[in-house]
Amino acid sequence: MKKILITALAANQKGEIFEIDGYAATGMAGSKIVPLTLDNTVELPFGSELMLLPDRIPVYFNISNKRVEKLSNNPFDSSSILLPVAAFNSPGYLIRYSSSYQERENAGYLPLFAYSAVGFYNGKFRSAVVQIDKEKRQDLRLMPQKKIANGLKKMKEKMKGNRLILHLEKCAMFYGCPAAKNLFIGRFEAPLPTSTVCNANCLGCISLQKNTGISHCQERIIFTPTPDEISEIALEHIHNVKQSVVSFGQGCEGEPLMAADAIAGAIDIIRSNTNFGTINMNTNGSKPDIIAKLFEKGLDSIRVSMNSVREEYYNAYFRPKTYTFNDVKKSIEIAIQKGKFVSINYLNCPGFTDTEGELEAMLEFIKKYPINFIQWRNLNFDPLRYINVMENVHKLGTSIGMKRILKSIKKADNKIRFGYFNPPKEKW
Predict the structure, then answer these.
(1) What is the spatial distance between Cα 133 and Cα 343, in angstroms, rounded to a whole number?
(2) Residue 77 above 90 pLDDT?
């Protein structure tokens, strides 16, 4: 059966987006360029955003000669420069192909977003993603601003003097953080940022960039909350939300294990008041001894961030300062031995994550470390430059496709679950 191509999109320097007749949109997975079709795209998910990519040249599929071509200028107006268009998709959707482009001379880094390939068909935008989680935890339609503001007002009145509430107010109302919004609405998972520092130097850190040419997306917390401040918010959430989750380790902080004393004190208070609620930590897993102590206090689950299960590629992205990849694996091993729920926050980039080498390594990893859950997260980093960094470690193989990766892992371990969000213990 002949696959139906979808039309290429471009933007001009005013930010206007339009179709390019005679060309099909393409997607990129490392050096591999593929035309976008109805089969490898879905209708652009609600809440997604379209973005133009500055200082880049779009790459298309010429329908008449069936060749992949870069197109610097509008073929119907040679004086107009074309810019590539990408989609930043709603949570729960995994990128199959990145937006296709080449850099112009002196191009800077792209901002810290994930850049899905996108095209147009039958009056609608279509994105090269696959849905990985159907939960509506971060569906913007369920987060009315008035309800957020009312919830915020009530919590501020109830928790006067709590500095963490004021920090989370900025997250929700200025940065638009869905996790902070959910706290004030009283649903799902509440964020508990605590750490001002980190023991890694991640390429794509969204809360701190120094002399990199990359803008960070939000400000990192500048104080360590007290156990009382942390537990006050956590208990409010747990007492009022069914199947609640409270999580240390957020985008607006460093590594939570660096604030372990405050966290341990908070967990003591929480667990002395209630056994309900899931206490989770999103972490780099760098301090296995501290992880073990927090489990003894009452930490229920961990989600460990990894861009790769291969040490050399992990180090190239996370750039650990005071720990090793063996520490990360040891933390996972301890969690499994203690019967805790273990997730991997697996940072995906087509052209790297979907190579045979990474798949083989992942299959070996889950065989040795039988984790419960993989959270497939799109890597928020300039995709071409990320691939270049990984290529400088070792030459990468050819992309075999994200759908094949998903199927292969499920076939190897049908107990492992896929998703996007931290599940509550009631769903384990």
Answers:
(1) 14
(2) no
- Number of residues that make up the chain: 428
Top pLDDT among 216 and 130 is at 130
Q: What is the DSSP string of 274-286?
A: -S-SEEEEEE---
Q: Strands 118-121 and 341-348: what pairing?
A: unpaired
Question: In this predicted structure, what is the pLDDT of residue 1?
Answer: 63
Cα 176 to Cα 22, 123, 143, 172, 250: the distances in Å are 39, 29, 11, 5, 14
What are residue 419's DSSP bridge partners? 375
Name the residue among 217, 285, 224 with its Cα closest to residue 251. Answer: 217
What is the pTM for the complete model shown? 0.95
Of 74, 312, 315, 111, nearest in space to 204 by CA: 111
The token duo for 240 is 């009022």
pLDDT at 84 exceeding the cut of 80: yes
> What is the rounded CA–CA span in Å between residue 160 and residue 162?
6
- CB 413: neighbour CB atoms within 10 A? 14
Give 366-413 as a DSSP string: HHHS--SEEEEEE--S-HHHHHHHHHHHS----B--HHHHHHHHHHH-
Per residue in 303-338, pLDDT (tens digit) is 999 999 999 999 999 999 999 999 999 999 999 999
> How many C-beta neighbours within 10 Å does residue 27 have?
26
Helix/strand/coil for 121:
strand
CA dist 54 and 86 (Å) reads 11
